[in-house]
Amino acid sequence: MSIPGVPPPEIPDLTRAQDRISFVYLERCVIHRDANAITATDDRGVVHLPAATLSVLLLGPGTSITHQAMMLIADNGATAIWVGERGVRYYAHGRTLAKSSRILLAQAAAVSDRNRRLAVARAMYRMRFPGEDTGRLTMQQLRGKEGARVRRCYREHAQRTGITWAQRDYNPDDFASGDRINQALSAAHACLYGIVHAAIVAVGAAPGLGFVHTGHERSFVYDIADLYKAEITIPVAFDIAASDSADIGADTRRAVRDRIHQGTILDRCVRDIRNLLLTTPSGTIDDEWPDDDGTEDEVNLWNEDGTEVPAGLNHAYEVDF
């Protein structure tokens, strides 16, 4: 018996994660499907979005999405993330683009071994300080060095834009309670978190298995997002806060979108995730994890000696009862 409906596309036919549109934020509209496009309808009309090239769809308050639209998003490997007002709060997300668990297994192996976890964490900090030798610093020293870098970044952009800067101060439950710069930072970081989350899920990694951050369902999202804040979201937030914007949230999202498009951040994000997770403590790519795109639709069974055997077969003949 055949399954009704349009068959989903094959994984190799889909647009690669790093080549997709970074994100689209929608609110107060009805989201449906028209052929292979996602449609968003409100009292101003209908907008068509190409599902095959979409990375993440941020669904804000007042959105209603149909079953057919979610099917199309899932079939095309995009991620739907339900968020709060202005995209600041995160509620749920969609599925992975990867079929293979290789990246996930490499991540789990690294985060479960103290030396490998330390190597990945140091590599993340090393990316913030190119040309500096951070290999002998403890995690406490690295955190202090990173804190000083972030404070310096805030101060430099405050001087550049003429904004009075005190500190990062915001209430995640009340976006409007913050001043202009803190509102802009919250909105910018929320967009970045959504994009990074989509990239992590797309390559088959786990958002909750962090190396620097820990104990949260999006620890790894915060790890990766921190690599790009000084370059993308912090300067964008100060630019918007210094402008005459009457809608900080919307203008910040558009500015982040433009900055990310200019910097091909999705390509860098996917590459950085793979390099961090597939690199051994000695600094070489682990040959155990082939450099493929994770699209093999293959399921095996595990042996206690670490080998694998094919699934989907009756293995009763292998043993005596």
Topology:
Layout: E1 24-26, E2 30-34, E3 37-42, E4 45-50, E5 56-59, E6 64-65, H1 67-75, E7 79-83, E8 90-92, H2 102-112, H3 114-128, H4 139-161, H5 180-203, H6 219-225, H7 233-242, H8 248-263, H9 265-278, E9 300-302, E10 308-310
Parallel strand pairs: 1-5, 2-6, 5-7
Antiparallel strand pairs: 2-3, 3-4, 7-8, 9-10
Helix pairs in contact: 2-3, 4-7, 5-6, 5-7, 5-8, 5-9, 7-8
List the keywords.
single chain, alpha/beta, 4-stranded mixed β-sheet, 10 strands
Give your account of this protein's structure.
The chain has helices spanning 67-75, 102-112, 114-128, 139-161, 180-203, 219-225, 233-242, 248-263, 265-278, and strands at 24-26, 30-34, 37-42, 45-50, 56-59, 64-65, 79-83, 90-92, 300-302, 308-310. With 321 residues, it is of the alpha/beta class. Strand 9 (300-302) and strand 10 (308-310) form a beta hairpin. Helix 2 crosses helix 3 and helix 7 (233-242) crosses helix 8 (248-263). The two termini are 37 Å apart. The relative contact order is 0.13.
How many beta-strand runs?
A: 10
Q: Percentage of helical residues?
A: 40-55%
Strand content of the residues, in percent? 5-15%
Cα end-to-end separation? 37 Å
Pick out the low-confidence regions.
11-15, 287-292
Main structural class:
alpha/beta
Shape verdict: flat
Radius of gyration: 22 Å
Task: Indicate the mean pLDDT.
Answer: 80
> How many separate helices?
9
Mind describing the biggest β-sheet?
Answer: 4 strands, mixed
* Side-by-side strand order of the widest sheet: 1-5-7-8
* Pattern of helices and strands: EEEEEEHEEHHHHHHHHEE
Cofactor: Mg(2+); Mn(2+)
GO molecular function, one term: metal ion binding
Binding site for Mn(2+): 146, 213, 226
Subunit structure: Homodimer, forms a heterotetramer with a Cas2 homodimer.
